[in-house]
Amino acid sequence: MGERKSALVTVFSSGVADVRERVRDALFARVAGPDGPRNRARIHGAPGPRWFPDGSAIRQVHGDTAMFVGGLRALLLQSLHPLAMAAVAAHSGYRGDPWGRLQRTSTFLAVTTFGTAEDAEHAVATVRAVHGRVSGTAADGRPYRAGDPHLLKWVHIAEVDSFLRAHQRYGAHPLDDAGCDRYVAETAVVAEKLGVREPPRTRDELEHAIAEYRPELRGTREAREAARFLLVTPPIPWAARAPYAVLAAAGVAMMPMWTRWPLRLPYLPVAEGTAVRLAAGGLVKAVRWAMSAPVPG
Fold it and tell me: In what residue span(s) does the ER-bound oxygenase mpaB/mpaB'/Rubber oxygenase catalytic domain sit (predicted)?
């Protein structure tokens, strides 16, 4: 009887491990793309100095699956700047190649956070070269340049605020106050290299910077179309739509009140504070469990 029970436990454990690995591989393929395994090996395995050491706040935040929620919130928040949104709508290809854009962004974050200093510098130079080629005219007639330090700063602070808030709510190990300030200061290192001038270095400075941009922000037609694309009609398989809906709801629930009407986002305070938060917390934990499965040597 004992041997039979032991055999059943072994079979069950093997089945769970197989499911965990399949989920890990599917998620990694979506986020990192076909070059993901090769990039991962170089990012984490190549010898050389890094910008940020083990244990740094930026590594803790960017290495946690709460980034899935933070990334969605960041995209929604960034869209509220008309010039930044005009550049994204005209040049990013987010509709035609949304997964490619996600993969490029996730690879950049991984390289600058965990990769060698040499590879991080190369990644920054590549992005700056792309930004240098992007310019145009918004629907209101104003010109824009992707390399404009003022627009770069908005994109940066929207990302940092979103990643940090998502980590504090859904991360495995939320930061203390000093850790939050360290995170903002460490992200400023990358921001300056990208061309941002005077990026915030504390959480208070971050909140002040966002407040300074508020007079420039509004919900344009392009911004509302982007929000609808992200939240209602994303190009994802049917099997992934329910989990994605939970992540999307969690991202919306973390948006400031002043962003809701411009983007036509719903506001359901009771549901957001209970059902959405519980569901998203459980999903982020499940994704963390799957993504932490050992990777074959």
Answer: 59-288
